[in-house]
Amino acid sequence: MRTLYQFYQLALNNHDRLMALMMLSLHGLLVWGENGHLHTALLLCHYGFFLLWQPVMRQSDKLSWKMVGIVLTGAYLTTFLTNWWVTAFWIAGLFSLIGGRVLSSEASHSKVPNILAASYLLAILLLWVVPKLLNANNDLLAAELLLIYVLPILPLTILFLSAKNSTPAETPNIDFFYTLLIFLLTIIVILSSFAIGIIWQIHYVKLLIFTVFGLATTLVAISWLWNPSATFSGLELLMSRYLLSIGLPFEQWIRKIAAFAENETSAEGFLQASMHELAALNWVSGVSWHSDSTQQKIGETTHYISTFSFHQLHLTLYSRWQFTPAMYLHVQLLTQILGEFYEAKRREETISQNAYMQSLYETGSRLTHDIKNILQSLGTLSAAAEQSNHAEDDARLVDLIKKQLPRLSQRLASTLNKLEEPGVEKKNQAKVSSWWKSFKQLNTHQQVQFEAPAHLPKTDIDPDVLDSVVDNLIQNALEKARLETGISINVAIMPSNHFCIEVTDTGSAVPDEVAEKLFKSHVNSKSGLGVGLYHAAQQAEHAGYLLSLTDNIDGEVRFRLEKVD
After folding, report:
1. Of 282, 313, 440, 491, which one is least surrounded by beta carbons within 10 A?
2. Of 372, 505, 377, 391, nearest in space to 441 by CA
3. What angle do CA 418, 423, 427 make, to 5 degrees?
4. Per the database record, which ranges form the Histidine kinase domain (predicted)?
């Protein structure tokens, strides 16, 4: 018993040695199997080695009664259905199983036994079996001795190559595509050789040359048509489109999903339309999904369930039959596209909501800034009233109030309009001369010097924007004057064709780190610079003006507001 186990470990527990023994038994069957009893013995021997070598079931698997019946039925049929046609197709099948492994991604050293085995099967098929089909034995009499005694060296070499390999037998991987392709090509060679031999009645060697070279030319043409040039996609694109369209045209699905994403305004509306489209497919019975707090269902449930999750979307698909692996990957791709579109719609809604909230925030900030300027103007009038001690001053104060209250009332009404319609900016137009006169009157009691050329620009301006921005610049300068002594403030309209006004103070320079962000973001500063200037710059830009810091040195800090053409 121990001797039999050692023989099993040596000869039958290695995949390559089993393959070599299977081919040696096949060689004996083809060459010496003409005797009836010897033929049956060699046939069963070859069939047994094939069952031990076959790449479908492992040797350690337990056989069910069904598999036992199939094995016994195959052994019974092989003893009766034996002719050269069956032999040719059988060798073609073995060659395709081994050749498919040669083309797969295995290690180079493990391919050598398969290459030798495939070479043996192809040689015995073309030089021994096919001539028997054509009754062309006389055409290869010179090679008969070579085939009988030299060709078996190939399977014997596999035995010696595997002698030092004590790895247990493993079930090899089967590449279905390569195996099927090689089998079909081998069948084409067999049938084309038979057809040409029957029709042309030529020497078998010439026939074989015509067949092999004809097949090679066909394969070269197909490989060129697969991807011929950059201008013509070829068969590769057609094949890819077919593989991506299992049960559903891929482009049609993309087009419908994109149309839903464009037409539906909300993410939930897009998801509803897409799910109804998915449930309408003939292989889908029902769909259920939940996202965030929403959970819905369409159609009927079945026993065949497939679940998919993409971002915040969890999808359960009920199919009418069990998905194959290829079909599952196809459905996963379709649902992933749906999930990505849904996530994009959710992000679009979030961005829209954030933009709306940002608009409200910026509008509120601008209104706060405008109201602050109006309060500052009222504070100026209050200060003028407190400083009035004589009847003549009272008369000038009353005249100032009569002129400024309507203007302040107009600015307050404009601010309330912005509050009612935050997305609408209304522009008022006025002459520079009238605005400049009223602005100087409003700030007469401030420690500010006003300068203007003899001839003011003729261009129209927006008085609301100028009041807001220039008031902010003046208030910042006055705040600096409270902290630093000996500061003078100057407001000057520059002599130019377009409107340009500058506010200059002789205080300390704005820090560099504050100056870099002055008009780009909010900057908190004890001197009051930077908080309102950001909103002033945004307001000026929307009205067609540019606010900038032109000079920033100790003793000369100059802000410029000019109209942009």
Report:
1. 282
2. 377
3. 60
4. 366-565
Contact in structure between 234 and 204 (CB atoms under 8 Å):
no
| pLDDT higher than threshold 70 for residue 493 | yes
- Range list of H helices, 421-498: 432-442, 463-483
Per residue in 54-91, is it b (16+ CB within 10 Å) or e — as a string? bbeeebeeeeeeeeeeeeeeeeeebeeeeebeebbebb
Beta strands 556-563; 500-505: pairing state: antiparallel
pLDDT of residue 168: 44
Which residues, including other chains, have CB under 8 Å from residue 168's CB and lie 6 or more apart? 13, 14
In this structure, what DSSP letter does residue 498 have?
A: S
Q: Tell me the pLDDT band of 169, cut-offs 50, 70 and 90.
A: very low
Burial group, residue 251, by CB count within 10 angstroms (0-12, 13-18, 19+): exposed
Answer whether 161's CB lies under 8 Å from 113's CB: yes
CA torsion, points 251, 257, 262, 265, in degrees to nearest 10?
180
Provide long-range contacts, Cβ within 8 A and 24+ apart, for 309-315: 310/335, 310/336, 310/338, 310/339, 310/340, 310/342, 310/343, 311/339, 311/342, 311/343, 312/343, 312/346, 313/271, 313/289, 313/338, 313/339, 313/342, 313/343, 314/289, 314/290, 315/287, 315/288, 315/289, 315/339
Terminal-to-terminal C-alpha distance of the chain:
106
Q: Which residue has the tokens 């299977």?
A: 22
411, 370 Cβ separation under 8 angstroms: yes
Would you say 463 and 414 are in contact if contact means Cβ atoms under 8 Å apart?
no
Chain position carrying tokens 């320079």 = 509
What's the whole-number mean pLDDT along residues 306-328?
Answer: 80
pLDDT digits (tens, 9 = 90+) for 91-112: 998 988 888 777 665 555 667 8
Q: Rg (Cα) of the chain, in Å, rounded?
A: 46
Mean pLDDT of the region 451-474: 83
528, 482 contact by CB (below 8 A): no
Q: Average pLDDT in the 136-144 region? A: 75
**Distances 259 to 154, 223, 253, 277 between C-alpha atoms, Å:** 63, 38, 10, 12
What domains are defined for the chain? Answer: 1-227 (no CATH), 253-353 (no CATH), 430-563 (3.30.565.10)
Q: Six-digit token pair at 318?
A: 């009920």
Note the pTM of the prediction, 2 decimals.
0.47
**289 and 314 Cβ atoms separated by less than 8 Å:** yes
User: In the numeric block, which tokens belong to residue 541?
Assistant: 């830009």
Tokens encoding 515: 């100056």
